[in-house]
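Please predict the structure of the following assembly.
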Amino acid sequence: DAGVTQSPTHLIKTRGQQVTLRCSPKSGHDTVSWYQQALGQGPQFIFQYYEEEERQRGNFPDRFSGHQFPNYSSELNVNALLLGDSALYLCASSLAVWTSGGSTDTQYFGPGTRLTVL
Amino acid sequence: QKEVEQNSGPLSVPEGAIASLNCTYSDRGSQSFFWYRQYSGKSPELIMSIYSNGDKEDGRFTAQLNKASQYVSLLIRDSQPSDSATYLCAAYHMDSNYQLIWGAGTKLIIKP
């Protein structure tokens, strides 16, 4: 059973460039969440995709955009890169489960993409 | 402001002892809680989830949830050097149902 995969593992870009990160969810999962994690901090939620639509978005500028494909895989695009975008980008997949008490989705993470902006 | 708070540590525990990690959350309506372990430079790995008040055990790990006091803890029995990592606590908030709110993590060091 394949887990969550991400590509590439490492990436070096310069300021102003654009980058695309890719994620394939765990088999059977239909939801993909993207996070940014700076050194020494917890993951910061960027957005979540479900049924090919952005279901929720965190406090990130429009330079961050994404897409989910019919096979549930997802891309994260970042335009006009800034030095501050250097971080570990994490993709987490889950199976949408809704209860009367709210979400209980358990998220499983891929290995991450380390982005360095010079 | 939806928050999950953790002591950043480091928490130093002798090998073989019990490590106790704590997390508090601000949203009284939170229903689902998760503990993840993250080794340096790696991605978070799920340890346990807990939804009901009380204890939940899985091997050497026990998660404890107290909704009245709004805290969740993780106990690690018979701590091993391989348990040295950062432990992240996360919770879903009722008014943000698809977004996990994360603590900054507690760094745990197990001393041989």
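Chain B has a mean pLDDT of 93. The radius of gyration of chain B is 13 Å.
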